Amino acid sequence: MNHDDLYLSDVPGRPVLVGVGGSHAYGLATVDSDVDYRGVYVSPTRDFFMLTTPQETYDRHDPDVALHEVGKFLQLATAANPTVLEVFFYQEYAVRDAIGGLLIE
Fold it and tell me: Can you name the residues that pair with 19 across neighbouring β-strands?
């Protein structure tokens, strides 16, 4: 699967774990299936010292990308949110840095 079309430059932080979800994650994809990306980003530290809180979720289409800021991601994971929990078990990751690896571990 080619991830060259996954442009993440407008994410309000650094993507640390971005997995391939949806039908591709379960081996149910057809030639017409789009690719869904789900994962985690880390907001810059300076964003936590502003009058507003950092953006908690980044969502866009074409390709479909839904990322949560690590704090929100962990809140959802500890509340057993199934969509968030499945990110830990994807077979393929477009982005997985050291922090993303720690989250999976």
Answer: 38, 93
Structure tokens at 49: 């010292």
Residues in a beta bridge with 15: 41
CB 25 within 8 A of CB 13: no
What distances in angstroms separate CA 35 from CA 1, 49, 50, 57, one per listed residue?
Answer: 9, 35, 35, 19
The DSSP annotation for 3-56 comes to -TT---TTSSSEEEEEEEEHHHHTT---TTPPPEEEEEEE--GGGGGSSSPPP-
CA dist 86 and 69 (Å) reads: 16
The pTM assigned to this predicted structure is: 0.90
The predicted-structure confidence for 49-83, as pLDDT tens digits, reads as follows 998 989 999 999 988 999 999 999 999 999 999 99
